[in-house]
User: Fold these one by one.
Assistant:
Number 1:
Amino acid sequence: MNGVGAELRSLTRLAWRTARTSPARSILVVALIGLVVAVGAVMTSIASASVLTDDEARSRAMGDADIVFAFSSDGAVHYQSGFDVVGEMAVPAVLQTGEESAEDYELRAEAYRNANRVWNQGFDAARAIASIEETLAPPTSLRWTRGLDLQWSDEASGPFGAFGPRGLVLDISQFDPVAAGQMVVLEGRLPERAGEVAIDLRSARGRDLAIGNARTYDGIELTVVGIYGGPVEAGSPFDLVVAEDFERLAEVNAEVVVSYRLYPAPGWLPADAADVVRSISNEVQQPAVARTADRALVPSPDGQTFDWVERPILTPFYGTSATEARVLPTLATVLLSVQIAFVAAAALAVAVRRRSRQYALIGVTGGSPGHVRSLVFAEAALLGASGAVLGVVIAIVAVRYIPYEAPFADGWTWGVVELGLLDVAVPAVIGLGAALVAAWWPAHTVASSPPAALLGGRIPSRRPGVPTLWRAGILLALGSSMTLLLSFQLENSSSTSLLPLVALAVLTMLGGTVLIVGPVLAWFGRRADRLPVLPRLVARDSDRGRTRSWVAVGALMVLTMIPVLIGAATKAYPNSFGERASELDGRIVTVRTQQRWWGPPQEAQPEVSPDVLAEYEAIDTEIGTALAAVGTVGVEFDLLELHDFGLVARSRQGWSSSFGHDVLVATPELVDAFDLSAEMREALADGSVVDIGQFRSSEFAGGDVYLEKSGAGGSVGFAAGTSVEIVRGDAYLNSAVLVPPGHPILERETPTVSGTIRVMADELTRSDEITVRQAANERWAESFSPVEWGRFGPPMDLMFERSWNDGPSAATVRFWSLLVTGVLSLLIALLMAALSAVELDQDLSSMIAAGAAPSLRRRFLGAHTLYHMVLAAVLGVPLAILLYWLATRADDFGPTGPTVPWTVAGVVIVLIPLVVAMFVAALFRNGKPSAPRRMT
Amino acid sequence: MTSSHAHVSLLELQNASLTLGEGVARVDALIDVNLTVTSGELVAVTGRSGSGKSSLLNVAGGLTPLSSGTATVEGEPLAGLKARDLAARRRRSIGYVFQDLNLLPTLTAAENVAFPLELDGVKVAEARAAADVALTRLEIGDLAGRFPDEMSGGQRQRVAIARGVVGERRLLLADEPTGALDEVTAENVMKLIRSLCDDGAAALVVTHDPSLAAWADRVVRLRDGRIDSITEAST
C-alpha cells in the first residue's frame, strides 16, 4: 500500500484512455464546456470593461467623488461636477469651415490647443493633490482669496459629512485662462481695473452688450471692456447672472437663467466675490449634484497615475463595483452551465451505459464503487479541464476582436476588454464544475450498480419512488412560498436587490418540476398498454431510458421558460438612465445633450400663466435653435417640442440651493396619449402645472409614469411614451426622449425638431442618430462664425467620443436572447435525438430484423423527440406562467407585465420540436436494418 | 493432480443459499450449497443452464450477497463487509476470468494485470514489475505492451489469468474461461490454470466441457441450485 497516488494515477490514465474511446461524445462535452467557459469569460470581461476598473475601491470611490474642484489660489476658479468633469475633454479636431478665414481658423485652433494644454496641466496638478488623502475629505468651508481656496477637513459634520468623501481637487493655480491662451480676446481688451470685465461673445450677443456698456448686476457695476471667445468646455472664470433676466424668468422658473461669462480684472473681485462664493457654496452643499455624478477623476493607488473613472453604464444593472458587475455574467454562466450540464450528463450517461461491462470488470478485479465513481468523475474532470482550456483560448482570441461597440449592442459601449485572471478563472471553475455535476448522476448510477448486474451489460433502472415525489413537492412548496413572499416584497421595494432571491425561487421551483419528470415518464410508461404500438414503444423506452429522457425533458423544459425569463429580464432592463425600455415596446429613441446653464439659486415658481409660457417658449425657441445647431437634438425636444405637443418637462437648472421644482405641464392630449396612473392623470388634468417633486416612485406604480429620484435633486423619467431625464443642480441637462409608435409627435412638422425625431423614431438606430447630429453639425458649421464656437462649443458628437448613455434596446436584447435560445434549443434537441438514436439503434435494428418496417426507425425517433418536447412544454408552461405573474408584481419591473415575445416563444415551444422531429425522421430515413446483437 | 503445498482453505461456502428476484420472478439460484476450495485445488463446476453455476461464482467472489449461509474467503466472512471492503478483498485475494471481454480495452496487457495492484495503492513501478512477473509466469511476457485488441483470444485469456493471480491473489474464479477458444487453446488455458493450482493457487472453474473438467481435482455438478454431485478426480 503506497497511498492514493498510484490509485489516482491509474484511474486518471484509465479515464483519459476511456474518454478517447468515445471521441464524439468526449468532443461534444469538451466543446460544450469550452462554450460555457468562453462565453462566461468574455461576458465577465465585458462587464469588467464596462466598469472600467477592476479596483472595487476605486470604482466605489468613483461613485462617491462627485465633484471635481479645479481651483486656483491665484487665478480663476473652475469646478466641474457631474459627468462633465474635465475628462475626455480632448480638444476636438479643429475643422476649417468654408466661410472661415484662415486667420479666424488659426485663432480658433490656437484657442483649442491652449485649452487642451490647460487641461493636461490641470491633470498633472490634480494628480499631485489628489494623492493626498486629506483632499478627499469633505470640504467644510470655502474661503476666497484670489480665486478660491477650498478648506477641507475630515469633520463628519461638514456639509458632506453624511455622504463621505465627495470631491477631488484640481489645482490649476498657474493656469490663468488668459495666460494659458484659453481666452481669445475678440474685441477690446482684458480688464485691468476694478469694475471692468471682459464678457464672452455669447453673453454679449445674448444681451446686446458691446464694449463700453455698463451694467449693474446685483449691485455690482461692471463695464465691458472686452469681448472674448474660447472653448466652452474650458469653462469660464466667472459667471454672473443678469438681474433683469432673473426677474423676467423668475416668473417661469429659474432653471433657464442665462448667465454672463465674465472675466474680471485681476484683484478686483474679492470685495464682491461673496455672490460667487455663495453660489459655489450652494453648489457644494447641494447633494443633488453629488448624486448625479457619473464621472470623476480618481487617483490610482500609487498616486502616480490619474484615471478617469466612470460610473459604469451597467451600474443600474450590475451595481457599482467590479465585483458586483461580475455577478450577473457569472450567474448567467452558471445557468448556462446548468443547461450544458444537462446535455453533458446525457452524453456521459450514454457513454457510461455502453461501458457497463468495463465498469463490471473494474468491480470484479477489485475496484470499489468509489473507484468506479472516481473513474467517471476523472473522465468528466479531464473533459471539463480540456473544455476549460479550450474556452480560455477562445476567450483570449475573442476579446482581441471585441469591438468597442458591438453592432448588435445598439450603442452599448464599453472600454478596452481585457481578460483578467478572475474573468477567466471563475468561468473555468464553473465550467469544470458543470462537467463534474454532469458526471454525478452517471457516476452514481454505475457505481451503485452491482458488478454482477453490470456484467450482463445492463445498469439497473430504479423507478422513481415516493421519496422523489416528496423531494419534488418540498422544492415546489419552497419555491412557491418564496415566490409568494417575494411578490409582496417586490411591490414595496427595489426589485433589483431581490433579483437573486427571485432567481433562487425560480430555480427552486424549476428543480422541483425537473424532479417530477421522472415519475411522469414512469407513469406514462406503465400505462401505455392501450396505446398503439408506436407511442407505446416511445413511452416504454422513455421510461426504460429514463435518465436520458429525464435529462432531455428537463433541459427542454428550461428552454420553454426562457422566453418569459427574457421578457421579465428585459422588463427591468435599463437600457438607459432611468428608462425601462421594454415599456416602450422596443421603440426607443435616446437623445442626449449636454448644455450648461449657469445661474444663482432661485426659488421655485411653479405657477405658470399661458402668457409666460408663450414667452418662455419664445426663449426656448431661441435657445433650442441654437442648440439644435450644435447637434444637441434632445434639448430641442425637451424645451420646444414637449411643450408644443402638450408636455413641458423642465428641471430647475443651475446652482439652485433650493433644489427647485420640476414643472410638468400636460394637456388632455398628452394625458390621453399615455396610460397614466389615476393619480398622475388627476395631477395633470387640464394642463395644470404639477410640481412633480412631490411624487415618489411608488406613487406612480399604478401607471406608466414613474418618477425617479436621485438624491435631493434627481431626475424625472416618463417611462411610457416620453422620458425626459433631467439632471438637476449641476447645470447640465440630460434628456432622453422615448417615443412610442404611432404617437402624434411623429406626425408633426416643426422646424427644428420633428424631422429629427421622426427619423430616429422610424429608424431607431444609433447610426441614424449620429447622421442627424452630423447633419446638424454641418448646418451649424455653415451658419455660424467659427469664433462663435466660443459661445456654443464644438459639436457635441465630437465632444462625446464615448456615448455613455446608450444601451441596447429591449427589443434588441430580446431578439438576440431568443435567437440564442432558439439555437440552443435546437442544438439540445438535436443532441438528445442523436443520443437517443445511438442508444436505441440496436433495439431498432432488432425490431426491424424481427419484421418491423424499416420506417420504424425514423418514425420511432421522430415520435420519441416529439414526446420529450411536448412533455417539456407541458411541464414548463405552468412554471413560466408563475414567473410571468411574479414579474408583474415587481414595482421596479414596471406596472405592466413583462413583454413576452409570444410569437417567438411559440416558435421555441412548438415549432422547434416539429422541426427537430422532422429532421430526425429525415436523418434516419435511410437507416439500414442491421443484425440484432442484443434483444432488449 | 494435487500439489505438494500445504492445503489452506481459500474459499468456504456453508449452507449458501441465494434467492433472486421477487414475486413471480423469484428464483432460488442456490440452495444450501456447501463447498470448500483449498489451495492447490482446481474445482470444476458443471451443470445445465440456469443450474446456478454463475451465481455460485458471484457468491464466491462477493459480487452477490448470500440470502442465507456464509461465504468465507481466506478465512474472512464476506457477509457484513462493506462494498469498499469487499472490493479490497477481491483485489487482494480473488481473480476473475470470464469467457470473453475480460480485459479493459484501453489498457495494455501489463496495465490490465497491474490494475488491481494499482487500485490497491501499489506504486506504478512495483505494480508493473509484479505484472511482468505474472505475465512471464504465464509465458506471455512479450505481450506486456499490447492492447487487448492486438492479441488473440487465447492470449487475452492468459492475460486475464495473469491478472487473476497477480501479486498475492490465490483464488481464481473462472466462468467458462475456454468457452470462446478453440480446442487446442482451451486445452492450454486449462493446463495453465492447473499449473497455477499446482503452485499453490486455487481455482473454481465453471465449464460445460467434460473434457476440460478432467483437469480438475473435483467436479461439482449443480442442478437447480443444489449440488447434485461432487466427483473426485482419479489419482
Number 2:
Amino acid sequence: MNAELAIEASGLNKMFGPVHAVANLDLAVPRSRIYGFLGPNGSGKSTTIRMLCGLLTPSSGQISVLGHSIPRDAEALRMKVGYMTQKFSLYEDLSVHENLRFIASVYTLERRAAKAQIAESIERYRLGALVRQRAGTLSGGQKQRLALAAATLHEPQLLFLDEPTSAVDPENRRAFWESLFDLVNEGTTILVSTHYMDEAERCHALAILDRGKLVAEGSPADLSRDIDAQVILVRVNQPRRAGKVLHAQKWVRSVAQIGNELRVLIDKGHAEAAQSTRDLLGGAGFAIDNCQPALANLEDVFVAATLQGKEMRAA
Amino acid sequence: MKALQRIGAVVAKELRQLMRDRLTFGMIVGIPIMQLLLFGYAINMDVRNLATGVADLSGTAASRQFLMDGFHTQVLEIRYQVKSIKALEQLMREGKISVGVYIPPDFERRLQQPDRAAAQLLIDGSDTVVQGAVAQLARISTGSISPPLYRPGTFETRTYYNPERRSPVNTVPGLIGVILTMTMILFTAVAIVRERERGNLELLINTPIRTSELMLAKILPYIFIGLIQVTLILVVGDLLFRVPIRGALLNIYTVALVFIVANLALGLMISTVAQSQFQAMQLTFFILLPSILLSGFMFPFDGMPLPAQWIAEVLPMTHFMRLIRGVVLRGASLPELAGELAILGVFILFALSFAIKRFQKRLD
C-alpha cells in the first residue's frame, strides 16, 4: 500500500451477465490531484466509480481506497469519501437548505459544526438566494452546485464525481472546475468522469477508458506528447472529398474536418507523413493550400487510443 | 448517539416529505373516513326498502292491516300491486322486485288455522343478503301468522336480521384493522422503492447510515401516522355509529401500536423485494385482500376450511381482529391477550430481520 496513493486497484473486472463492463483495470490515483476518467458512454466509467465506492461488487480484482480494502471495508470509508451521482440524487421535494441539513445529520456532523459548514457551503457554492427553493425547481447548474455542496459537506478526503457537468452550461462549468481546484488545494483528491475534452484537459492525470478497458493513462500533456500517431493539418479546396481519399489509405487512422481544415491522424511508423499526404492529394488533383504537422491535442489522443478510432481506420 | 442522529435525520426528512405529498397526506385522512362511511353505511346498512310486489287476492280488511303492519318497518317497500302469483314471478325475473308478497283469496280462513301458512313470501335468492334477511321474515310471518301477529312490533325486524357481526359495533373495530393494513403496508412498501426509483438511494447508501437505522427510520414516522388514524376511526366511529368502547383506551392503543409496527415491518419487507412502486402496490393488495376476507373481519373465522385458517394465521390482521374485538367489545385486559400480542411480536421480529438482511447498501 502506497501512502501517496488515494486509490489503488489491480485486475479489476466487472461482468453484467455476458457484458464485460470493466476489464482488467489497473488504477493508481495519487492524493490531492484531479484524476479524470475520459471515455464515451458505456466505457465503464460509472461502473468503475461505483466499484471504488463499494456500491458494486467487483467480479474480480483488488481495490484499496484510502487504505481500506473495498468492498470489504466500504462502511469505514463512508465518512471519508463524497460521491456525486450522475443523476441528481438529492430530494427534489425538499428545499436546498433542508437537503443540506439532512446530509449534515446523516453524516452526524455536530450541531454547531453543521450550521457553520452549511453556511460556508451555501456561500461557497453561491446558493444563498436559493436556500428556500425546492431542489426540484433548480436549474441544471444550480442542482449541480447543490449536489457538490452536499457531497463535500462532511469534508471528505476523496471525492467521486460521475459526469458532474453533463447538464451544465459552459460558464457554470468553468466556475465548477474552479471550485474543484479549490478543493484540491485544500488537500482533497478528486476522481471525475467526463466525456468532454475540455474538462479532461484540466485534470492532473487521465485514464482513457474504452469498452471497459484502460487504453491510455497519463497527464494530458504527456498523453499528447506520447500519442501513438502523427497529426497533420491539411487545408485543401474540396475537404469532404479529400477526406474520403485520405480515409481510404491504410496508414491514415482518422480524418476529421475542423472548419476548412482536415485534421489527419497518421500511423506513427509512417515516415514523411506530411509529404506523403501532400503527394497523395496532389496526385488526386486537389489544390493544397497548406499541409503541415501539428501538435496532438487530447481529442487526437482519445481518437487514437479508443477502439472507435481503430475501427474507423478499418472501415 | 450518532445512530440516533442519523435515524432522526431520516425521520424528519420522511415527515417533511409526507407533509408535502398532498396525495399521501390525503390518504392518511381520506382512507379511514371513506372506509368508515363505506363499511358503516353502505355495506352493513340494515336491509331496507327492498323493492316489493304485492298480489293481494284476498282484499279484506285483515289483509290490508297485515300489509300495513308489514310495511311500516320499511324493510319492504311496495312498488307494484298485481293480481296473480304469475305476475309476481314475472316481475322478479325482470329484476324489478326482490320480494313478492302473495296473499291468497282464503287469507282470513287460513289465519284461523295455525298449522297452515296464511301468506307467501317470494324471495329473490340471487342476492344472498336479501335472501338471508327476508328468509327470516318469511319464517316469522308465514309460520306464525295468527292474530297475535298484529301486536305492534312484530315486524321490528332489524334486530333479527342483522347478525351481531354485521353491525357497526363489530365492524368499526375491525375497520381499524382493514384501514391500518391498507395504509401502513402501502406507506412502507413504497418507502424504499420510491427512493430507488427517484435515484435518492444511490446517495443514501453512500452515507454512513446503517441498514438497521434506515429501516427503523422508515418505520417510525408512520407509527405516528397510524396512531392518528386509529384516533380518527375511534372518534368518527363514535360520532356516526356510537360504537361503545368497553376496553381501556390505553389497551386499544397498545394493541393498535403493535399491529401498526407489524404492518410497517411487512411493508418494509415488500419494499426490499419489489423492483418498482407499482410492484410494491400489487404486493400490498396481494396481502390486503386475504386480510379482509380471511381474518374474521368478513366471515367467521371458525367457519373457514382449515387451509384458509392456516393462511389466516400468518396474516397480522387475523391476530389483530382477535385482539381488538377482545379489547373493544369484551373489555379484555392485555395479559389476557398476551398470546396474540406475542405472535405479532414474533412477526415483527421476523419481518424486520428479513428486511434488514435483504436490504444491501449495494446496487448489485
